[in-house]
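Quarterly update from the structural biology core.
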Amino acid sequence: MFLESQNFDIVRTALDTVFFQEFSYDMEEPGIATANTGDLFKVIRTEQQAYIGSINKPVGLFDVVGEVQSVPVDTPKVANKYTIPVLDYAKKIVISKDLFDDNMHGVWAENVKDFARKGRLTQDSNAFALFRLSFTTTLTADGVALISASHTALGGSTITNILTSNPVLTSTSLNTAIVMLREQKDQTGTVIGGIPSILLVPSKLFKTAVELTDSALIADSANNAINVYRSAYGFKVYSSPFLGVAAGGSDTAWWLMSRNHSVSRLIRQGIETALTPWQYSNDRTYTYQANFREAVFCPDYAGIVGSKGDAS
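Predicted structure, tokenized:
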């Protein structure tokens, strides 16, 4: 509990100022990705505690038929049902009435501001955990890791969406990822021609990613050649501090995505806050709390390829 008796330097004004660490984490900044970045997380709103879905196997390519030949039948199939439970996130601050009333040096007000920031950062950390764990425990509806060489399509074929040998991010490996995405097959084994639109990287790869994709000419080269990634594709580069080693992830992993990816953010309830007055407590304390309910998931491998970037 936040008490006056434990914070004498504040309540006795022994300090001229109290330092509060400010930080900017603006989702509008170029290249900065958050849980609210629609290109990365497709929002699904729900009024239920869980979301149930399945994977669709569509029809295959059309067949050539004769003038009076019967038209071949191709039957769609739905399988690999999955259930996504909505998770509850919550935190509260308990503060004495005396400290709340006095609010010396704005301590209480600043802590409430930081409390709100931490709620948003929790959303971001949770959202990007899907990518941090995409090579291990983030599973698709077929039961294997999101980025894997052993996805089983409903048509029976084995699909890979991990780059062989996990190359570091270079012009060559990026082109390999583009080709893989373009030649990726759907649940019937049909090439669907995904168009690369998003390159997602941790903070330490952001400079490299932008140089590769946005330089007018080939980056770090004396050759006077156009940058095909900029002129032909023009995909967006995003980064997040919640992908790197500092957040329990990797500073070398990277992902290339098309618009038809299925990374989704299931929202049951956005962040809500409530202040309980001291009159409703038995020890003259205020309680300020907040919570939100959501989950992030990716049911299908389509539209995303990745590399650990460690050349393993």
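The domain at 26-60+75-307 is CATH 3.90.1690 (phage-related protein like fold).
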